[in-house]
Known about the structure:
- This is Transcriptional repressor NrdR.
- Negatively regulates transcription of bacterial ribonucleotide reductase nrd genes and operons by binding to NrdR-boxes.
- With 153 residues, the chain is of the alpha+beta class.
- The chain has five helices and six strands.
- Strands 1-2-3 form a three-stranded antiparallel beta sheet, with no helix packed on it. Strands 5-4-6 form a three-stranded mixed beta sheet.
Amino acid sequence: MRCPFCSSDETQVKDSRPTEDNTAIRRRRACAGCGARFTTFERVQLRELTVVKKDGQRTPFERDKLERSVSIATRKRPVDPDRIDRMINGIVRQLESSGDQEIPSDKIGELVMEGLAQLDSVSYVRFASVYKDFREAKDFEEFIGELSTNVTT
Length: 153
């Protein structure tokens, strides 16, 4: 593992333990070059996934990109980070176990929308505004109207 501070390849694992939800291994590492300490996570990856975008472009699936999107939607919201991590783990597991190697970006977006709807309604609307490409306030009004109708029924 390369040190993120000095780029040395001489790092040593000091401690390993499973994460609370047992979906990853947390490793504390120390760099022999600069002495810095850092943490890495090791997760099981069942298969290489490819995201098929709306324009047909294919890119490798990146869990970090999914985490960033959800992080932006939940920023400054009272949502437990463990619940967010469990939601992301669940989405990744669903994608990996679907049997499909190529996943349409729409499918990922819908899974995130479902997860955020369960976590926090404001985060859900934030994500939806980007995912559904809201252009003006009227788009928000219509979406909130649909959301309110679905909640009351």
